[in-house]
Amino acid sequence: MLRELFLPLIDKFSFLNIFEYITFRAAYAAVTALLISFIFGPRLIKILKKLKAGQEIRIDGPQTHLVKSGTPTMGGVLILTAVIISVLLWQDLGNYHTWVSLLSLVGFGAIGFVDDYLKVFRRSSDGLQARFKFSAQIVVSLIIVMIIYFKDTGYATLLYVPFFKYPVLDLSVMYIPFAVILLVGFSNAVNLTDGLDGLASGLLILVGLAMGIITYLTGRVDYAEYLQIPYIRDSGELMVLSFALVGACIGFLWYNAHPAEMFMGDTGSLSMGGTIGVLALMTKKEILVIIIGGVFVLEALSVIIQVVSYKLRGKRVFKMAPLHHHYELKGWAESKVVIRFWIIGGLFTILSLSTLKIQ
């Protein structure tokens, strides 16, 4: 919005050409999202407490978590609001990537909001029934994937793998189910990780920074050619969204750090996970995002392994899934689990960025 507002005035005020620069707008999108989170965070906490929108803790979870019962949830509303406002203010509204990413934020966010609402006002840890929740995620994912599939004709279906210069496979029409699975999978992976104070929000900051760098490089023909990665026209605008996500999550972490004053809830985790998946699709980093969000992937895999092992062998591999609960039950303090998972997330971030030059 600000870009469209000020660019026509460049002839009279030359300094306004700064709004042409993606890096400038991305930086201030982060600042804007951060300030929104700081300003409205305490107010949202008060509203949620007044509405008695407290988290219902699973009785089969770690006993140390029972003291968290009643902590305001649905804090993802703050993250969503901060990101959406920042994107509308600082991103190019004439860029189709902007609207696809907003569709992801709103679509997955709405599913998460309904789930959180049902949990809060039923006073239960159970929200939407699994089949309805997954069905809604598939529908939103399918809409997004179909837009990308028909808009980016010629390269949308190409699959790139780290360390290879050229696409290794053209998935053709099979790209559609592949991309839908990626979006649904990543959305739920972030959701599963959101189980400890500050864990998911801290990891999202790292992933957002990595995606911000990648989207910028992918949208610059000179850098893309130098690094020998696919150049995606106009995708650099997604750096604004990525940095807005970083700013919003930093602001949210202020209230979500241990002991948390507010939880993200499905509103935040589903929307953030789905949006990261969309960023990967629009920059042709469908495989690399598995490394970028490595901790999220490990958390999801731990649940899959636990369920499969119990059904086939009648035995559990972990003390409890997702993985962070396993280490809690091994005696690690919650803050130690969070910080160590952040460190691993940082290593995944560095590893993923290093692959851009190793082609």
Write up what this structure looks like.
65% of the residues lie in helices and 1% in strands. The protein has 359 residues and is mainly α. The chain has a two-stranded antiparallel sheet with strand order 1-2. Helix 3 packs parallel to helix 10. The longest helix has 29 residues, at 22-50. The radius of gyration is 20 Å and the shape is globular. The relative contact order is 0.15. The mean pLDDT is 92.
Task: Explain the layout of strands and helices.
Blueprint: H1 2-6, H2 22-50, H3 76-90, H4 96-121, H5 130-151, E1 158-159, E2 169-170, H6 175-193, H7 199-218, H8 221-227, H9 238-256, H10 265-282, H11 288-292, H12 294-313, H13 323-329, H14 334-354
Antiparallel strand pairs: 1-2
Helix pairs in contact: 2-3, 2-9, 3-4, 3-9, 3-10, 4-5, 4-10, 5-6, 5-10, 6-10, 6-12, 7-9, 7-10, 7-14
Summarize this entry quickly.
By secondary structure, this protein is an all-alpha fold. It has helices at 2-6, 22-50, 76-90, 96-121, 130-151, 175-193, 199-218, 221-227, 238-256, 265-282, 288-292, 294-313, 323-329, 334-354, and strands at residues 158-159, 169-170.
